[in-house]
Write a structure and sequence with these properties.
By secondary structure, the protein is mainly α. The protein has one domain. It is built from 10 helices and 2 strands. Strand 1 and strand 2 form a beta hairpin.
Length: 248
Amino acid sequence: MKLFLHQLRCEQLLFWRSREAAFFVFGFPLLLFVLLGSVYSGKINGYPAANVLLVGMIGYGAANTAFAGTAITLVNRREYGILKRIRATPLPASLYLLSSLVSSLLVFALETVLLFAVGRIFFGAHLPGHVASLVVAVLIGTTVFAAVGLAAAALIRSAEGSSAVVNFILLPMAFLSGSFGPTRHYPGFLRAIGDALPLKYFIDLVKAIYLGGHGLLARPGALGVMAAWTAGGIVVALRRFGWEPRER
């Protein structure tokens, strides 16, 4: 436990010391929420616009923090030889990856709190009623996107292209999943693509808890899809993840 806490502290220090990464991963969803909240007003699908946008930004924040942050960080550390040096230390590989996951969870948990604070102060969004269910949903979402991020890190070959590849996946996924607004008027083929993405089901789960006032098990189908994505990400990571720089 002492070794884990030490590594977790290191991960947090590395994250917050990188101002560019901290802004992109932590601050960008907050900025987007302020911008979208200033544009949308009235109601969306029968709910106050600020509440719906808040749900979307929680979804985007989870994907941005756990998927994009994990993938880009691990690829950069691998290609610059950092993972190779870590692998040569007594630190177990599983403990290192677990500390990265928990670090992402801590960042996203703080970001979620700030999203609610911004929504409440500036746009009158209501606070969640089922806090425990929402906390578990955040944990599940972080795990899902961290697993997908590990798989992406295993497949991306270069540090130079990692940011471009991740954003090429992240931004369309957020758009098609409803992070930036309703998708009901999208063409059918775009909605079909969105229906296959894990972010849509995480947003559906958070929406059911926060807007619908339901418990965690209100969307068993969404939980099943997210579990499948988590399993798939872990399988790919186990088969393809490497600790040494790729040959070029």
